[in-house]
Design brief:
The longest helix has 15 residues, at 263-277. The strands form three sheets. The chain has an eight-stranded mixed sheet. Strands 10-11-14-15-16-17 form a six-stranded mixed sheet, with helices on one face. By secondary structure, it is of the alpha/beta class. It has one domain: Ribonuclease Z/Hydroxyacylglutathione hydrolase-like (Metallo-beta-lactamase, Chain A, 4-Layer Sandwich), CATH 3.60.15. Helix 6 (263-277) packs across helix 7. A hairpin with a 2-residue loop joins strand 3 (54-61) and strand 4 (64-70). It has helices at 78-85, 103-106, 109-113, 150-155, 233-244, 263-277, 290-299; strands spanning 10-17, 32-33, 54-61, 64-70, 93-97, 121-124, 133-136, 142-144, 161-162, 167-169, 174-176, 193-196, 202-204, 212-217, 221-226, 249-255, 281-285, 312-315. It is globular and about 55 Å long.
Amino acid sequence: MTLGLAPVDRVEILTLQDNYIDIVARDDSDVVQRARSRPGFSLERSLCAEHGFSLLVTLERGGQRRSLLFDFGYSAEGARRNAEALGVDLSRVEAAALSHGHFDHTGGLADMMGRLAPTAELVLHPAVYRGPRFTKRADGQRAPLPQFLEQQLAEAGVSPVETREPYPLLDGQAAFLGEIPRVTDFEQPSGTMCYEAADGTEHVDAFEDDTGLVIRLAGRGLVVISGCAHSGIVNTIRHAQAVAGEEPVHAVIGGFHLTGMDEATQIRPTVEALREIGPRIVVPAHCTGRNAQQAIERALPEAFVLNMVGTALHLGG
């Protein structure tokens, strides 16, 4: 399904939650702007990193700026607290999207949705409620993961848009990717991540709910955003190209879910595919893992950006 995305003039992506923070980084550029220690950044107003992910995406077209929220972080207050410290007015955010149903992306959902514009819609895949989910240890024991429940949304007064198909956001200036086909041979479901079905049977979790966003940046190409990329970051990019129409990829940001993955069979083929796709900017965040981040930086040194809480990416213009 191809959507006719409206090209935008600028894309700004502000990280409200990620696994890393360094407020004395000095690598600002035309594209990257780091958060700064400044008056008001007291202990109560400091930026906090957690094993979670949340982005504020602002699009500019014809001089008009519009924003959407992608994911909600790990804890109930972490991403929202960082937004306040960064001076973000959440009441101006017009839409929100959830990448998948894992706790490190849903933690702040109820609190943050209540602070967005009254008309803001939340878009998600219906499989976000799957569960209980768990990881399976080598000894066969289960390590349970917190389940995201439909009841949580009802209690928060949120009636989401549930879709498996691509869905336009902000009047077609961005798109929710919907369910991502697995087309590569090296990005297949891990046998260690499972769920229990309603009948009590155990299944490997294929993460049908895992998804992302795509934006068309005028004159540059596509901006692809992932949450964890359980479906594979290469699969995510290829699907984004299919949804938006085949175009060069200008930037990719998000979790690539390569932490702990095998170098030869998963990290290396992913890096080679990224090199072939050739994005101008690559920001492997959250669950990408140190080994994979270093491999991407070695392969694409001019494109690589180390992400952290409070980082703002300025694309276009």
